[in-house]
Predict the 3D structure of the following.
Amino acid sequence: MRNANLIIHQKPHRKLETVAAQYPKKMNLKISLQIAKTHLLTKKRQTLIAMLGVTFGIAMFIVMISVIKGVNKFLEDSALDSSPHIRIYKEITSNHPSIIEEANPLNFNIIYHQLPKNELINIKNGLQIAANIEKESAILGVSPQISSQVFFNKGPVPFSGQIAGVDVLKEDKLYDLKKRIKSGNLESLLSNSNGILMGKVLARNLNVKVGDKITVTTPTGNLKLVKIVGIFGFGIQTVDGVKCYANMSMVQEILQKDKSFVTDIHIKMKDSQAALTYAKVLKNQYGYKTQDWAEANSAFLAGDKIRNSMVIMVSLTLLVVAGFGIYNIMNMNVINKMKDIAILKATGFAGNDIVSIFLIQSIIIGILGALLGIIIGFCLSYLLSSMPFDAGDFLDIKTFPILFEPKYYGLGMIFGITTTILAGYMPARKASKIDPVAILRG
Amino acid sequence: MLNNENKRSVENETLPLGVEGLVLQATNINKYFYEPEKFQVLKNISFEANRGEFLALVGKSGCGKSTLLYILSTMDTAYDGLLFMNGERLTDRTQDQLAAFRNEHLGFVFQFHFLLPEFTVLENVMLPALKLGKYSNREIEERAYQKLKMVDMQDHALKQSAKLSGGQQQRVAIARALINDPTIIMGDEPTGNLDKKNSEVVFEIFKQIAHENNQTIIAVTHDLDFAKGSDRIIEMSDGQIISK
């Protein structure tokens, strides 16, 4: 009806556009797809080589990220496992205001060589505080303890270590101590007031086993003969090589402190992440230093971010290299096919058809390459996960820690396909801009 | 929108549809080359072609006949002047519009066959029709077979195009040029690479196309026998038409 006004002046004629518009656009993609498929199938080796670049990049990405994330998770779990979520203790520091500051606050005072006060290291009303905290619903368990550095005497050589006087049942609730017992048993501590549970590495170093007796010396010089009633292992050197558990009353006795003397409160929460904020709450509430598990294991966990960044960087590099490979191959393809492009244009294929012919080839290479990549990546990860891995006494793991998560595989596919689209687009565009006349004239 | 329509209607008056048999009109075509220096290769070329005419475009090397052909083919748009084909103005159209026009109304045969080597003979002939999308794949296959029959190549339909002889490949190229039943078939030295016998075969096919199917042929050629057998010879020299 648009043309109605002009019919007087205009001879009726069919618009050029109607021909192409009559038949749906997807027809064009179908032909492009057919041509692209034929190109790929007739040059199978070249297609395969282009694919392998992507495959390698993606496979390495999958393996690396599964391993790194696996290691990170393992370390985090270990840290969580064997540390309290929150530890409350009295910090011994020289950093407190001197009496001069309090006497002359307005003057400019200089104090040299300030020494720590000879103050008690206990948490005042520690047992009450522990009981209060335990009442909270978010708390899994609370274990107040009295701990001290001690020396273990094996013959003439003293071994340093740490003794923690605990209510062993409370400690069990926090750390599943019963499961960690390697020999002897937990309950013996309850029936033996002078008994101790010793870490397995320490026991090995001291060459003692369940039933042996050993002398313990405190920093103030007190001696005590104790009996080893059990040996435990957390799988972490810093615990198994250093720590011993004993009854709270026994430790209080050898340190010559009273029955309410408590140096640490260990807390485990139902949600480990919540501990990070709750620690601050407790510090404000009671005024003592609180340390959450992340802070306590910061050495362990420091590598996380670095490792993650490394994975991303290496993977991106691999994919960029693969992309260059594809760019090269597609460029070569276009140059080799200049005659074909010219005749296609002559017979009526539009610029976009030419672009889609080559772009589709790139995309197919990307999809197949990435698929192959994630399959190979999975197989390699699986192989690795059954490989024995001995970290010695430092960590208690038997096999390589690998994390299998579908989102990495999805990410791998997306990376691969994106790379090939980007790399294949420019040669495809170049192809569509070829001047057919120059080629057809020869 | 309105302005374009008006402009087109003015132009269209020079070639109202319905004037019997006029399939091509070129008016005052001028073209310049700029490398190595400005050189006028076509000077005020004007001519017409009728439906079913077998035209030969001849002239010495460098006279501009191939250049003219490529302008007529719609693939070269760098010219001054006007070009009408099938009653439609083609000058100043976009590349995509011209491609669509070529797809439906033109067929080409070049000195080199330009068959796609990875495809079979039948697939090569089918491609322009698949792009046009006027018929179903089944119908296109059947039509392609018919065209191959016209050039006596139907027995080789499923062979890889790269495996044929030069003469056979050129015949397949002709079948491909015919697949969409174009109004005009343009040839650039179609017998240039062929021996005498194959040249004769191609010539006969062209004659048949023109006279039996009423399709127009415009062929640039050096082949004197070929030119002599045509309906009309357009001779060029130094960028100008000296006889038509």
